[in-house]
Amino acid sequence: MIGFTVVVGYGDAALDVLRHLPLHVENPEVVVVDPDAIALTGALANGARAVRGDGRDVCALRQAQTQFAARVVVAVPDDRDGLQITMAVRGLNQTAVIVAAVRESVNQELFTRLGADEVFVRARSA
């Protein structure tokens, strides 16, 4: 399973990030971690594997085999949760490329300092 992508949070932000990032040709597998059953149903319909759980929970990240992922997309609604997830992912996997979708542009540098390799600032919803 080396080379797969883990997506933490499967909503509009995750889909936007995935549209801009090519999946690894040698292994296009995606594993989605989300606590919401409806989001996971959408992920399954799009061909992903699903792990029901909170991305802040290291056990859920391990169940998704984040420690072996080539790339991890962190796309949760709250930037504080995203920071916590980014740090947890970096603790599990020193080599993965972490891509974070943030709501507040002022948090972009903080995400980078705490382990994100790429940060996308997404528009705030009305």
Structure description:
The protein is 35% helix and 21% strand. With 126 residues, it is of the alpha/beta class. The chain has a single domain, classed as NAD(P)-binding Rossmann-like Domain (Rossmann fold), CATH 3.40.50.720. A six-stranded parallel β-sheet has the order 3-2-1-4-5-6, with helices on both faces. The protein is globular, with a radius of gyration of 13 Å. The N and C termini lie far apart (39 Å). This is NAD(P)-binding protein.
CATH class: Alpha Beta
In N-to-C order, the SSE pattern is EHEHEHEHEHE
Mean pLDDT: 89
Describe the main β-sheet briefly: 6 strands, parallel
Helix and strand composition category: alpha/beta
Q: How far from one another are the termini?
A: 39 Å
InterPro entries: NAD(P)-bd_dom_sf, RCK_N, Trk_Ktr_HKT_K-transport
Protein name: NAD(P)-binding protein
Question: What labels describe this entry?
Answer:
single chain, alpha/beta, 5 helices, 6 strands, Rossmann fold, 126 residues, six-stranded parallel β-sheet
Question: What can be said about this structure in brief?
Answer:
This protein is α/β, with parallel strands linked by helices.
Outline the fold blueprint.
Blueprint: E1 5-8, H1 12-20, E2 30-34, H2 37-45, E3 49-52, H3 58-63, E4 71-74, H4 79-92, E5 97-102, H5 108-113, E6 118-121
Parallel strand pairs: 1-2, 1-4, 2-3, 4-5, 5-6
